[in-house]
Amino acid sequence: MGHHCCSKQKVKRGLWSPEEDEKLIKHITTHGHNCWSSVPKLAGLQRCGKSCRLRWINYLRPDLKRGSFSAQEERIIIDVHRILGNRWAQIAKHLPGRTDNEVKNFWNSCIKKKLIAQGLDPKTHNLMPTSRPPATVAGPNASQFNHPQPPTTPFTISSPSKSYDAMKSTSMEVDLSMVNSLPPSSLPFHEANNISMSSYQYMDCSSVMMGFKDHNSHSSIDFTNSSSTIDHANISSSSFQPPGFMDEASMWADAVDTLEAQKQNEAAVIAQQGNVQEQAQHLVGYNEANEKGLEMDAYNSAAFDLEFMESALMPCRVFCSGSAMEQLQWDC
DNA sequence: AAAAACGCCAACCGCAAGCAA
DNA sequence: GTTGCTTGCGGTTGGCGTTTT
């Protein structure tokens, strides 16, 4: 069965030969592709237009980045997938030179398995309840770790009621310090809006995340708002709106709403298990910790959850860049 | 060494959205 | 409003190379 564009033609299927590639490249580079359905005929190819389009987009395009995914790219995929789900085309837009097909394949062949191995549901990114027994810790500090998961979250992204000190006292120090060491997001958002990496990195992400006014008193994104949602009206009232800002900002605002709702309970787990890892590293290191009765499972789960914590902060990074824009506006 | 199992990934398929007639 | 076409997307398949038995 053929496509609309090629149902009346005899078309070749399967892998593309170098000769076919050459024909397609030559045609596209000289004539472009105003209409894919006419490309095969004009290029002298026995393929359907759809096949030509796919071949060009996924393989022949000159701006494609070949080779394996970097750790940062993997991080971004996980971050964005957590929020957007299997919207590969959207995810790929955050990875210059990568295609949706490539991202999808990488997810299915690699990341998915990693998440499952770490006890996470790759669809929801939530901990799979039956996949990992509750971590238990033996030794002198056992009582600190072995209590049931607290029913309430130690923080929320836009919580108005938590002071910075309160945050620190609920074992978030390690995470806060990590925020500022995060690599800059590769979201094209920044490039599109001329936000330099230096100004982006300068922003105190943790303060933004906590709803601190100090650094962001000029910000139109009010993280101290009692509502758990971002104030879209305030965002739109900004006089500094580079192209694409509203779309991106709205998308991420929505995304954070979703993220917050989904992750509040997990935050408690993360904070607690983060302590397990921190404690282990601080006191002894992995091997000794094991000897002292810190179970590998506890260590691994804590390590993973810290990683999760980092990815959960991605929307904050995005909002930081929003704040950076406001800062620029103020400075000007 | 050979067969089977596995994993990766290019390519295909079907569906939906957008658009023009 | 309907139809036909094109494009774009996500799910799935199948070929091929690699690893395991």
TrEMBL record:
| UniProt GO MF annotations | DNA binding
Highest taxon of the source? Eukaryota
* Domain Myb-like: start-end pairs: 8-60, 61-111
Concerning InterPro entries, the annotation shows:
Homeodomain-like_sf, Myb_dom, Plant_SW-associated_TFs, SANT/Myb
Q: Which Gene Ontology terms of cellular component type are present? A: nucleus
Domain HTH myb-type, first and last residues per copy: 8-60, 61-115
Instruction: Kindly give the Pfam families that the UniProt entry links to this protein.
Output: Myb_DNA-binding
| Annotated localization | Nucleus
- PROSITE patterns from the UniProt entry: HTH_MYB, MYB_LIKE
Keyword terms of this UniProt record: DNA-binding, Nucleus, Repeat, Transcription, Transcription regulation
Please identify the protein, giving its name as recorded.
Myb-related protein Myb4-like
